[in-house]
Every structure is written in C-alpha cells, then in structure tokens.
Design goal:
β1 and β2 form a beta hairpin. The strands form 2 sheets. The chain has a 6-stranded mixed beta sheet with strand order 4-5-3-6-7-8, sandwiched between helices. A two-stranded antiparallel sheet has the order 1-2. The chain is built from 9 helices and 8 strands. About 35% of the residues lie in helices and about 20% in strands. Belongs to the small GTPase superfamily. Rab family. GO terms for molecular function: GTP binding; GTPase activity.
Length: about 260
C-alpha cells in the first residue's frame, strides 16, 4: 500500500495565497482567468527567473457520467460543459501548476497532461486503455456522490487501473459533492473506504460557474504534485543507493 503523505509535508500548502507566489501564478493567468495551454505551449518567465518544469502523465478513469472531462476542465480552469456528453476517444488537457518545495524553497512548474477516455470507447477498442496507462505517472479514480454504482465500482476500477502499473500515484476524487440533496454516498462510507484502501479522497463540486477559483483546485493539484515529486525522489534514491543502503532508506521513506 502506498504511503499517504501529510498535506504540506513536501510542498508549501496554500502557497498560491502568499505574496511571493504571485510572480509565478500570474504566468498561468490571463485577465484573472486561467490560460489555456496547448501541447507545445508553456508559461514564460522573465530571463532573470529560472524555474524548472517537471512533466507527468495523469490518467483520469471512472464510470460514464461521473465527470471525468469536467474534472480535467476544472483543473485546467477551462469552461465546463453544461450538458454531459460521452467522450468518444482519448482527450488530453495540459495543466501547469507552480509549487514551492518545503525543504529547499525551490519553485517548480508541474506540467500535468491529463488523459481522459470515454468508458464505452474503452470497451470497444482494446488499444485505448493500454495507451492511457503507458508510462503513466498517476491515476485519478473518480466516482460521483450522486451515483451509488460508481462508488461501488471503485474497487474494480482500482484493480483494473493499477495493472500493470507498478509505481504509480493513486488518488480518488468524488465529484458533484455540492449536490448534497441528491447524494447516494455517505461520509461514513467514504471514511471507511479510505481506511480500507489507504487512498486520499478529494471532493469536487459540480458548479460550472466559477472555473477560475484557484482555491478550489489547489488541494488536489498540490497533493498530486507532492506525491509525484515524492515518488520521483524515492525512485532516484533506489537507483543511486547501493543495495545494502536501499533497505535502510526504505524504512525512512516507504512507498
């Protein structure tokens, strides 16, 4: 079971609210709205500010209608469609998110390429799921608070999504959390799921009116960045350390 990091243990939590972050977050905003970055585009920093960019591939999976495409749009600050439509193939969305590492104070831009594929397309075409999981760094497992079947299917989703992905960050996102009048999943059931699976569960609303609220997406993006960076650091240590030292390091940082 992968280690669940405490929020803010690797990156500075709520850094987007501090004054020294404005220079960096201004590069992903335009007229107080998020910039839309294409596959070959990136934030441009002043020549005197050197910032490294780290690249990761994220696969978003879940039953049809849980809000995979809407979550990708929300994380990128893009317009969210009012009407649901089935994704007919693979769609990718690029998200840039700056973070400040707690220990070193170093600032990094995380480039997250979100992969989303419709459930029916995955069933029809055998090559799509392997393509989504190829060289993937993290998987977001989605369920909807208004769809009981999507929550009950989480264990199957995690089992299917984790094979053959060995060292992959796994997070769970519950969508449409603000539609509490129609919820089919209780907080007790979510807590029980977290205890059994040892995976963080994030709650996202279904409101499409405010897609540029950094505070709404910051907890999930920061957590994703923390686990991805921690995973890379552990992998780097295991690569450069002698075999006799690896077991000692594993007792300090275990994945």
């Amino acid at each position: 079971m992968a280690q669940v990091l405490d929020s803010g243990s690797v990156v500075v939590a709520d850094w987007h609210r501090s004054a020294d972050s404005k220079e960096f977050f201004s590069r992903i905003l335009h007229k107080k709205r998020r910039r839309n970055f294409g596959l070959l585009e990136a934030p441009v920093m002043p020549p005197n500010v050197a910032v490294d960019t780290v690249h990761y591939k994220i696969f978003i999976t879940g039953k049809s209608g849980v809000g995979k495409t809407a979550l990708a749009a929300r994380l990128a600050g893009l317009n969210i469609p009012n009407m649901h439509y089935e994704t007919t193939g693979i769609e990718t969305t690029v998200v840039y998110w700056p973070v400040k590492l707690r220990e070193s104070g170093r600032v990094l831009f995380f480039r997250l390429q979100l992969w989303d594929c419709g459930e029916n397309a995955l069933r029809r075409f055998d090559h799509l799921l392997p393509s989504c999981k190829e060289q993937v760094d993290a998987i977001l497992f989605l369920f909807s608070f208004t769809d009981r079947a999507s929550f009950d299917d989480l264990s199957n989703q995690i089992a299917r999504g984790s094979e053959p992905c060995d060292r992959v960050v796994k997070l769970v996102v519950g969508t449409k959390f603000d539609l509490f009048m129609h919820t089919d999943v209780t907080e007790r059931e979510v807590s029980r799921f977290q205890e059994v699976w040892g995976l963080p569960v994030f709650r996202m609303g279904g409101d499409v009116s405010n897609v540029s609220n950094l505070g709404e997406v910051a907890p999930l993006l920061n957590c994703l960045a923390e686990h991805l960076w921690h995973q890379d650091c552990v992998a780097a240590r295991s690569t450069i350390l002698p075999v006799s030292t690896q077991s000692e390091a594993a007792t300090v940082v275990h994945v």
